[in-house]
Each structure stands twice: as C-alpha cells, then as structure tokens.
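Hey L., structure's done. Input below.
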Amino acid sequence: MLMGSIAELFFWFFWDFLLSFVLYTTGALVLRVVSFGRIQKPLFAPGVFSSEKRLARNDFFSAYISGFFFYLVLLALAIWLK
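Output:
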C-alpha cells in the first residue's frame, strides 16, 4: 500500500514538472513554426513555468495539445518507418 502511494506520488511529480514542461515547450515551438510566427506562446524557464501555468491555465491548453500530438505523430512515424 505504501509503495503504491509512493509510486503514484512520483508519477504525478514527474508528470507535473517534467512532462508538462516538455509538452508545453514543444507545443509552443510547433505552433510558432507552423503558423510562421503568428501564434507566439511565451516560453518559460522550468523554475517559472509552474507558477505561470497556474495563472493562465486556459492559455496553456493549446500548446499542451500541440506538443502531445507532435510526439504522437513522431511516434507513429517511427513505428511506420520500421
């Protein structure tokens, strides 16, 4: 029971800090490149990212989804090419 709680806590810590930062940053860059600079989501340092994410939750959603789909397409392409 204790190991399960620790594993779940580690998962949420990993997701909240590392994966959300990577997905947001990738999504912001993908949106910027695909729109030829018309859509510019701000890029944050990892230390500032957590507090900024809480302030503008709805504004971050499009960058998260874009980053997620970028890695999903990248994974599908890697599977298809092998």
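The CA atoms of residues 27 and 65 lie 7 Å apart. The chain has a mean pLDDT of 83.

-- N.
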